[in-house]
Amino acid sequence: MSTPSDSRDPGRPLSDEELVHLHDNPPAEADDRGHYRMLPLLLLFVFSGLILFSGTYVGHYSGSFSPIVHDARAHAVTGEIEAGPVDLAVLGGTLYTANCATCHLPTGLGLPGAIPPLANSDWVSGSPERLIRVVLNGLQGPVVVNGTTFPGAAAMPAFGSTGTNLSDDRIAAILTYVRQAWGNASDPVSPEQVAAVRADVGARADAWTAAELQPFE
Amino acid sequence: MSSDSHMAAADTDTTARGPLSLLLASSLAWLVVAVSLGLVHAIQRHTPSFLETIPAFTYGRTQAMYETALIFGWAANAAYAVALWILARLGGGHWRGLGLMTGGTLFWNAGVTIGIFCIGWGEGTMLRFLQMPAYVHPLLLVSGAAISTPAILAWTGRRTSGTYVAQWYAIGALFLFPWFYSASQVMLLADPVSGVSRAIIGAWHAQNVLSLWLAPIALAAAYYLLPRLTGKPVPHYGFAGLGFWVLIVVGSWTGGRHLVGGPVPAWIPATGIAAAVLLLFHFMLVWMNLSPALRAGTTDPLRFVRAGIVAYLAGGVLDALVSLEGAAARLQFTHFQTGLQQLFVQGAFGLLVLGAIYDLVPRLTGRAWPSPRQIRGHYVLALTGTALSVAGLLIAGWIQGGALLHADASFAAIAASTRPWLYLASAGELTFLLGAMVASVHLARLLLGLCRLSAAGQSTATTVTAS
Amino acid sequence: MKSGPLFFIALLGVLTVSWASFALGPDMQLRTLAPYYDATFDSTFPQSPSGLAARGRAVYLELGCASCHTQQVRRSGFGSDHERGWGERQSWARDYIFQDPVQLGSLRHGPDVATVGDRIESEAELHEMLYSGSEGMPAYAYLYEPAPPAAQANPLAVDQVAGREIIPSRRAEALVAYLLNLKAPAAYAPEVANNAVEEGEAH
Questions:
Q1: How far does A94 lie from chain B, in Å, by closest CA?
Q2: Which of A64, B312, B456, C10 is the most exposed place for a label (fewest CB within 10 A)?
Q3: Would you give the DSSP letter of residue C39?
Q4: Which of C63, C104, C135 sits opposite B60 (nearest CB)?
């Protein structure tokens, strides 16, 4: 079928039927010029170039297709990710607030006449062995802290296995925090020290008295 | 050939006149509503105190209402109308299922109206191109299926041997829309995904609306109008099919590019950007085939086609370039993105589909447009309005992006420096609105004239040969 | 091109590949993200906001704040987010697992608000900003009730503007509680390791 435009009035638009069949035969003049045959090659070249760019882009910036790589420049890490070391002082602060601050107060000042202070306290800066025992089993009876006597009407509860059952890590964290807060400047307490003391104490049901703790000063 | 007589018979078949006129009239009415909301939104960009005391016109809600009216009101109605026309005419001119289409049109437009009111009320979802609340969308899905029925029947019942690329684009869009629309409804609204997946799938949905629904309809209109009105075949028709498949395959992958640098897995924006660059191949093929439009400006529909194709190609190339990380760092969250979207929706889709409407209405109704000057007037207003609005937004975005890169530029200073360009964008929006009103009045005149004629019992069966 | 059923099967296949890659795939990947337990703080992060702050998210959504404000901090070097003090690190997907719906935003006509709770001094500051607006931000006066000056200050009033006390509605209170709750997120060891970039790694 000859091209519809040959035998029609050029000013008239095509009918729909003519439009459907307009491209049934490719235009003749294209074959005469050699460059029409180059077109598929050019398109292939352009397409390849674009695929190369896109593929390289995806390869570089897709973060190994991991759901947790959000920085396009990074790559996924294989193997176990180690959580960083626990910052005992920070953890201790949180645990202190949860467990100790009700009585000893967030300021560590305690209640004069009833609850011994922890700020600038000789007990806190003293030996870790005594301090750990106090936390593990509690304290009852009168105590002398910084020269002041506290009658001990309210006993300190146990936080070891007979009480709240804090782990070695947590007790170590709390004591590290307490020994470095409010003007205290003592060495941190490690979980190993707490474990050793716990093993030493064994199974003890009662709270300590000041007299029992004297050998550990 | 037998199809000749079918076509001739089709030219006198007036059953589609009413239903399709309803769809077209709805689309132009929605265009006026949408661009009016767009004007309010544009003013609020540079003058935030405009209508700030009315909760329904809170900036965020106005933007959502404008976008919904534009896409689900104007664009949807026009897309269905143009797709149906192309498929029915190229398929042999047989109209069936028009009653379903009329019902679907009424329910679709009712649903969108309700949805927009609900957005004004505060029920919007803040999902791009899915702003209406969850309960509206199933209604639209069903109504859309009803509206598509004549088009689908025209395709399945086509009497011509062989098909033309415009038909593939049109039926492709009508086929893909319900699928991705329902997937988006389920994953974003009915049983929503949690966390940033919502943003990722939202970006996928928004891109599908543009690449798998609006762009194919616009290209169907372009491929239909250009050869038909100029009488010349497209230069490299053999590659038109390739262009179609590249758009369908790659277009949907580009949504992630807007999430570059965001709290999403890095591979999503990376593949989006890579796909946007790959999509340049599609634009190259479209350029190869439709570039004759740039030299053809003899009739008004062709002028619309010429402007639409320029907008489509410019937008596509620009989009790919600014997706790359270097440009994205500057332009990501700025008016530039708004301008690019407007260049496509209002420029490319809008102008191409308006050209198709100006071409098809006389052939549908059997009456010429009352006033060619009004068509020319609309063309000038639409082109100028789009150009001003897009230019204003792109420049404002460029300035805004540059200022955002400097930590010491305050947002008050940014607002002051972008204001002149936002005034320009508002002026463009107003101009486009005037054009839309001109077109609506013109269509109303034509349709009213038609009603008066048929009321008077006169035959309107003669086909119109000049367009 | 044959236009039979194969055409539509191919179309559907293409869409399915796209859906599987960019809708289903990301959802399945991100579903595995769980809160991260940080031993130092003995807590999981992120933490789900409750009460008024949770209700404030709905107010943020219905006012459409995301049309001007983003809630995503980009990495330093990609824009000036870090220099502006919007966040110490790039936002990660795990930060958002309890945010339904996320409001990442896509335009910045105002500052990013992902960590705005760290930058705002008081509730009153936010209430005043919402009530009066500013250059570039509209006023949301309809969220407040101005009261005439009275002998005794109204206990519900949060600020005085132009000699009148302004009383926030429940929506305004919820919104401010929500915004003040948006603070810098914690660091999660897997993301820290997977997003590490060597110094001088070029683009």
A1: 29
A2: B456
A3: T
A4: C63
pLDDT at A19: 85
- CA dihedral of residues A68, A71, A72, A78 (deg, nearest 10): -50
Mutual angle of helices B17-46 and B98-121, in 10-degree steps: 20
H-helix segments, B57-196: 59-68, 76-90, 98-121, 137-156, 165-184
The DSSP secondary structure of C89-151, one letter per residue, reads S---GGGGTT-SS----S--SS---TTGGGT---HHHHHHHHHH-BTTB---GGGEEEE---S
* B327-to-B204, B324, B392, C54 alpha-carbon distances in Å: 21, 6, 19, 36
CB distance from A66 to chain C under 8 Å?
yes
Flag whether pLDDT at A2 surpasses 50. Answer: no
pLDDT, tens digit, 9 for 90 and up, residues B335-369: 999 999 999 999 999 999 999 999 999 999 988 99
The C-alpha atoms of residue B391 and residue B163 are separated, in whole angstroms, by 39
From C40's Cα to the closest Cα of chain A, the distance in A is 5
Give the whole-angstrom CA distance, residue B409 versus residue B396.
15
ipTM comes to 0.94
Could you say which of C29, C66, C133 has the minimum Cβ distance to residue B60? C66
Closest CA relative to residue B63, chosen from B449, B444, B293, B337 = B337
Q: Is any Cβ of chain C less than 8 angstroms from the Cβ of A191?
A: no
Please answer whether residues B133 and B124 qualify as being in contact, where contact means their C-beta atoms are separated by less than 8 angstroms.
Answer: yes
CA distances C110 to B92, B248, B411, B414, B445, Å, are 55, 36, 6, 10, 46
Whether the CB-CB separation of A54 and B278 falls below 8 Å is answered with yes
**Model's pTM, two decimal places?**
0.90
Residue A111 DSSP SS3: strand
